Each structure stands twice: as C-alpha cells, then as structure tokens.
C-alpha cells in the first residue's frame, strides 16, 4: 500500500505546480515509497515526514524547474567537492554538458571519472575566477556559507555574469536554523568569540561573518532572508525565483536567482 494516496500528493503539489500532470502523482508515489524505505536504512534525507518530503523535495524542485530554460544544456557545480550534488545533476540532465570546479584536484578527478564532468580548478580570488563556458544553471552549495558579505556579493555577481539569459544561479546559505543549532549547543560551527562576532553582524546588518581561527578570508557566515533579498533587489538584471529556509538537507537555506 502506498504511503500517501495519489490524491494527497496532487493536493500537496498544487501550491508549487497548479496544473499537476495526471501521470506525475503515480510516479512520485512509487519514488516516495522507495525513498522512505531506503531512508530507514541509510541517511538519504533529514526530512522524514512523507508530506514534508512531497512539499520540500518534490514541490519546491518542481517549482524551480519551471523557471529553467526550456533547453538546459550547460551546468556548473561550483565548489563541487567529490560530487555530492554533481551526481544528481548528472542523473537529472544525462545529456547536458556538466562542469565542476573546486580547489581539490583529487575530487575533480573523481567527478570527471564518475560523472563525465569537465573539470577545472577554481581559486580563492573571486576577481580572478574565469569560467570556460556560459551556463544555464549554476549550483553553489556550501560556498557562500564560508564568505563575508562582500565576498558573497562579489561571488553572486560573478556567477550571474556566467549564466545565459534566463539562466539560474542557485546557492545555499546559513540562516536561522544554523543560529539555533550553535545556540542550543547541538553543533559547533566556529569558536565562541567568532560566533559572537557572527551573531552581532547578523542581528545588526542581516549578515554575520567571522574567519576561522588562523585563516583569513574563510570562515562561517549567517544570512537573513532580508539581506539576500535586498541584494537581489539592487540588481536590475536579476530576479529572485524562490527562497526556502532549510531546503537543503533540512539545514541550509536555498535561494534561486534568475538572470534577466
């Protein structure tokens, strides 16, 4: 027996996809059952409530997908690591030209071998970054979470210069949940003095940042939705498609920004 009736899946999807194709709920029902089965054995997602999975994983993904160019041919996983998101991009876009970049060449060699990605080594200077291509979609997971407000703004502008018209830049941010995690003692992102600096900036300016101890220009940041929305609002050639708190792994907030 299915975990959720197909009619319930349809109703849960309607805020994200008003005209739900009739063949979609049966397919998602099968996938939902499979996901819940395997999630009981290994940690595939921190979201375990079936209705929340339909809304947060399926609904929000379908909403953003509507804004992708009709023909999505070129993708970039910026700061890919060893491909934790690259694998899903390749599965979703099997015929697309997929690029990955990172600082670790060993990780890039794995992405090249496992996902047939074209790889290039990035750098720590945002101004000096150069892409070998223009992209329909760029994903930045756990990148801005380690940058100052100035660094995040410069990086976003750089990424928007790399996307085609109507292309999307999708990136993750630390938000209220990260604030709650360290505040409750359940997780420690940074030393206590650094955390106090981050909280002060977050509360007064909407963006808090501190370097890791002993490192310069690399640390931990917290971002209010109002700060990132204000940044997008100042960019005449960009618009915010969606913002969702704790959308990635029930941890990072995610924003999707379209070049116009």
Architecture overview:
This protein is of the alpha/beta class and 260 residues long. It folds into two domains: 6-65, no CATH class; 74-176 and 218-259, Vaccinia Virus protein VP39 (Rossmann fold). Helix content is 40%, strand content 23%. The protein is built from nine helices and nine strands. The strands form two sheets. The protein has a seven-stranded mixed sheet with strand order 3-2-1-4-5-9-8, sandwiched between helices. The protein has a two-stranded antiparallel ribbon with strand order 6-7. Helix 1 crosses helix 2. The longest helix is centred in the first third of the chain and has 16 residues, at 24-39. The protein is globular and about 55 Å long. The N and C termini lie far apart (45 Å). The relative contact order is 0.11.
Predict the CATH topology of the largest domain: Rossmann fold
Structural class per helix/strand content? alpha/beta
Spatial arrangement of strands, main beta sheet: 3-2-1-4-5-9-8
Query: Proportion of β residues?
Result: 15-25%
Order of helices and strands: HHHEHEHEEHEHHEEHEE
Count of the separate structural domains: 2
Main β-sheet: number of strands, strand sense, barrel status? 7 strands, mixed
Total number of β-strand segments? 9
The CATH architecture of the largest domain can be given as 3-Layer(aba) Sandwich
Query: What does the oligomeric state look like here?
Result: single chain
Radius of gyration (Å): 19 Å
The first-level CATH class name of the largest domain: Alpha Beta
Say which CATH homologous superfamily of the largest domain is assigned.
Vaccinia Virus protein VP39
């Amino acid at each position: 027996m299915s975990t959720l009736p197909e009619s319930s899946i349809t109703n849960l999807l309607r805020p994200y996809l008003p005209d739900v194709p009739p063949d979609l709920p049966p397919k998602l029902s099968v996938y939902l059952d499979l996901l819940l089965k395997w999630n009981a054995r290994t940690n595939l997602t921190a979201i375990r409530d079936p209705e929340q999975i339909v809304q947060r994983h399926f609904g929000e993904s379908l909403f953003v997908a509507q804004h992708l160019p009709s023909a999505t041919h070129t993708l970039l996983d910026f700061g890919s690591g060893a491909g934790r998101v690259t694998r899903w991009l390749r599965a979703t876009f099997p015929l697309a030209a997929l690029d990955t970049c990172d600082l670790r060449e060993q990780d890039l060699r794995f992405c090249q071998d496992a996902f047939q990605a074209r790889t290039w080594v990035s750098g720590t200077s945002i101004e000096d970054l150069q892409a070998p291509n223009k992209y329909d979609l760029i994903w930045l997971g756990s990148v801005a979470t380690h940058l100052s407000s100035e660094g995040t703004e410069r990086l976003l502008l750089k990424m928007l210069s790399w996307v085609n018209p109507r292309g999307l830049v999708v990136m993750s941010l630390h938000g209220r949940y990260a604030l709650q995690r360290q505040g409750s003692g359940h997780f420690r992102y940074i030393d206590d003095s650094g955390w106090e600096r981050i909280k002060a900036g977050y509360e007064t300016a909407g963006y808090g940042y501190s370097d890791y101890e002993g490192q310069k220009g690399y640390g931990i940041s917290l971002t209010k939705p109002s700060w990132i929305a204000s940044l997008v609002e100042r960019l005449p050639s960009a618009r915010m498609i969606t913002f969702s708190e704790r959308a990635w792994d029930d941890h990072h907030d995610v924003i999707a920004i379209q070049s116009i």
